[in-house]
Amino acid sequence: MPKAYWVTCYRSISNPQALADYAKLAGPAVAPFGGRYLARGAAAVAYEAGVKERIVISEFPSMEKAVAAHDCAGYQEALRALGNGAERDVRIVEGLE
User: Over the chain, what is the mean pLDDT?
Assistant: First the structure.
């Protein structure tokens, strides 16, 4: 079964405190689903239509676990803490193997 990845690209962060509150809740919420961070921070380089804002790449053991983590109560609480503190694009993609 291929792994799955959350790719989260931040377009802007308007409330750093809301982002910090989100981060405190998000990691522990997705850990029971096997979620782990592979990369997070400001982009070193951005090409084409990219922006040099924060990016996070998270790995999960399967697509099922990745979707379940996003939909779980703990992660939904983290999203409420973030509120309108950031504009971002979150995608879940299946790995190649």
Answer: 96
pLDDT at residue 1 greater than cutoff 90: no
Do the Cβ atoms of 78 and 22 come closer than 8 Å?
yes
- The residue-averaged pLDDT of 83-94 equals 97
CATH 3.40.50.2000 correct for 4-94: no
What is the three-class DSSP state of 76? helix
| Residue 94 DSSP symbol | E
pTM of the model: 0.90
CA distance 34 to 64: 11
The string of DSSP letters for 13-48 reads ES-HHHHHHHHHHHHHHHGGGT-EEEEEEE-S---T
CA–CA separation, 23 and 20 (whole Å): 5
